[in-house]
Amino acid sequence: YLETEDFVLERWFKDIFLGIDERHIYDFRSKKAKEQLFKQKEMDWLPFGYSKEYLDSMRDQSFWDEEYNKVFEYNKKIAEMRK
């Protein structure tokens, strides 16, 4: 259950977006930082049954290119269902 009353959404907005600055942005482009993300992904996703091989495939840009290309097919299916 997710509480979405107006006062809750307003509080989230204030807590998350107001007062944000560059201190709240972390650059994950370095090899070390990317590895940190992969290790966290393993800790979070392996217990849910995702295979190590599948997670490792995410290290390659081709994985993300293929995922991106799925968007066009999904958009087509959504448009067809709305007719």
List the helices and strands and how they pair.
Layout: H1 6-16, H2 31-45, H3 52-57, H4 61-81
Task: Give an overview in words.
It is a single chain. By secondary structure, this protein is mainly α. The chain has a domain at 28-82. It is 64% helix and 0% strand. It has four helices and no strands. The longest helix has 21 residues, at 61-81. The radius of gyration is 19 Å and the shape is extended. The model has no long low-confidence stretch (mean pLDDT 92).
Q: In brief, what are we looking at here?
A:
With 83 residues, the protein is mainly α. 64% of the residues lie in helices and 0% in strands. It contains four helices and no strands.
Summarize this structure as a short list of keywords or feature phrases:
single chain; 83 residues; mainly alpha; 64% helix
Category by helix and strand content: mainly alpha
Radius of gyration: 19 Å
Number of helices: 4
User: Which runs of at least 5 residues are low in confidence (pLDDT < 50)?
Assistant: none
* Strand proportion: under 5%
Helix percentage range: 55-70%
User: What is the residue-averaged pLDDT?
Assistant: 92
**Main sheet overview:** none
First and last CA, distance: 31 Å
Number of strands: 0
